[in-house]
Specification:
4 helices, alpha+beta, 3-stranded mixed sheet
């Protein structure tokens, strides 16, 4: 049968990229109840290779509580970190200052020298994503 490649990143890559502040993006999915927040989150989790494409959309990966699974709704916010490769030159990009860009280039070069088995490039990003409930109380 066809071999399916799952997780697109290693623990070492996740740990390594946490040192590169310019390559970290944090975001939250916020919308009304039943407007697809968890479905969107599942799709992003699938793209990162954490769940299969068959499971995306129905997995409700970030709904980890028994009552969430039972009711089919998100009750508590859940965060997940994922590793992505994205070529900023191919899309819109917020430019770094020359000093920050030089520091980032040096940090990436250092990572490539000292952690030979971890492939971190200028196109590597850590995405911190929060799937939030669609009701009024966002404090959970």
């Amino acid at each position: 049968g066809k071999r399916v490649k799952m997780v697109n990143f290693t623990v070492e890559q996740m740990r390594s990229i946490m040192d590169l502040k310019h390559n970290i993006r944090s975001m939250s999915v916020i919308a009304h109840v039943d407007h697809g927040k968890t479905t969107l989150t599942d799709s992003l989790v699938q793209k990162a290779g954490i769940i299969s494409s068959k499971a995306a959309g129905g997995a409700r990966y970030t709904d980890t509580r028994a009552d969430e699974a039972e009711r089919g709704i998100t009750i508590k916010s859940t965060g997940i970190s994922m590793f992505f490769e994205y070529d900023m030159q191919a899309g819109e990009v917020a430019e770094l200052s020359k000093t920050d860009q030089d520091a980032l280039d040096a940090a990436i070069a250092d990572k490539q020298d000292t952690e030979a088995n971890v492939q971190i490039t200028k196109n590597s990003y850590l995405i911190n994503l929060i799937d939030s409930p669609g009701h009024v109380d966002f404090s959970s």
